[in-house]
UniProtKB/TrEMBL annotation:
Organism: Streptomyces achromogenes
Protein name, as recorded: ZIP family zinc transporter
Domain of life (superkingdom): Bacteria
Sorted UniProt keywords: Membrane, Transmembrane, Transmembrane helix
Transmembrane regions: 7-27, 34-52, 64-85, 174-194, 200-220, 232-250
Lipid metabolism listed as a keyword: no
Length: 253
């Protein structure tokens, strides 16, 4: 029971970063270059965590095939869900809305887009949180690198998305209600990652970890890097590599 509670608490910690980012994005006029810079750094952090903490772990547990197949399945599943949501107004859910052509639509412009945005945020957040719970299965101690990576990446995600929601005319109650719900879902996802996945064989655990990795990597390429590129395209490579190295250093200390 103690491990279940711990999994939930770590999931809540990581999810709370979304609320922190939302508060910054909704309450402050954050310069676009700052948003892009933080988004690029967060993308680098997540890429490193996916490489060394998720896919690497899946490979060590079950070999190349389950790791590769699971990663591909995760990417396909995320992309399929993302395509479905994009048609309902959630294509630019992580965009801060600085360019009208890539802004989030208001409910008046596209009915149901608010619900699609909420579902999109859930699609982005659940795989990240689930792997936090799964990481507890390896020796009973959570991977602090994974928690740190998810937390660091969640801040710019919440910041950029909430800024876009505000520009699309959505109220404070909706914005913070969405991110509070996602933070709660992160808690549940971490608990399920520990309790449900923990009952499976090591090969299945490795495959599930790889599926989450594939979904996260697809999310980075589809939603985080495009937002970062818009305003930091001359420096995005250096910033992303910096985030990668910070996460790499944390995983090897």
């Amino acid at each position: 029971m103690a491990e279940v509670v711990e999994a939930g608490l770590w999931g809540l910690v990581a999810g709370s970063a979304l609320l922190l980012g939302a508060a910054l994005g909704y309450g402050l006029r954050v310069p676009q270059k700052v948003i892009a810079t933080v988004m690029a750094f967060g993308a680098g952090v997540l890429i490193s965590a996916v490489s060394f903490e998720l896919v690497g772990e899946a490979y060590e547990q079950a070999g190349v095939a389950p790791a590769a197949i699971g990663t591909l399945i995760g990417a396909i599943a995320y992309t399929g869900g993302n395509v479905w949501l994009a048609r309902r107004g959630a294509r630019h859910r992580k965009r801060s809305g600085h360019e009208r052509a890539e802004a989030q639509p208001s409910e008046a412009e596209q009915g149901g887009s608010g619900t699609a945005l909420a579902l999109g945020a859930l699609l982005d957040g659940v795989p990240e949180s689930a792997v936090i719970g799964v990481s507890l299965l390896d020796g009973g101690a959570v991977s602090l690198v994974t928690v740190a990576a998810v937390f660091i990446s969640n801040v710019p995600e919440g910041l950029s998305s909430s800024a876009g929601m505000k520009k699309a005319g959505r109220g404070r109650g909706y914005v913070f209600g969405v991110w509070a719900a996602i933070a709660a879902a992160s808690t549940v996802s971490a608990v399920l990652g520990y309790t449900v996945v923990g009952s499976f064989s090591p090969a299945v655990i490795a495959a599930v970890t790889a599926v989450a990795a594939g979904a996260i990597l697809a999310m980075i390429a589809d939603t985080m890097i495009p937002e970062a590129f818009d305003d930091a395209h001359l420096a995005i490579g250096l910033i992303t590599v910096s985030g990668f190295l910070v996460s790499f250093a944390l995983s090897h200390t």
